[in-house]
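Render this sequence as a predicted structure.
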Amino acid sequence: VGVEPAHALIRQGLVDSATAERATLELLKAAERPTALFCTNNRISQGAIRALYKAGTTLPIAGFDDFDLSDVLGLPLTLVSYDADEIGRRAARLLIDRLEHRDAAPPASRRVTVATRVVRHGVTSGDEQGRPAADA
């Protein structure tokens, strides 16, 4: 289940909010305009939001990394939230374990799972032109 991506609309190599803002403004000028955005982290989301604001439009955004004030922007955002402190604690435990057993053979790769939750701010859906869906 899912949506086949429009490869012409995919932008890679965005490293901060400024590059995300420029890429989003470019996408908004394209003949095949996106109907929604997916952002890989909070900096990319913030750059996309800034571009949408400057363009005087809105699009639903889904992304990874919730961020401060995302709940008061009044935008259609769906974000994956996680406990960054827990990730840090687990990484530190793995590192300390490795340092304490530095003479042992390197361990095989290890999968570490950290709980996430989906946080919805507004309604993340839109019509075929990327306009927010009308409230029912």
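Summary. Confidence is low (pLDDT under 50) at residues 127-136. The longest helix spans residues 84-100.
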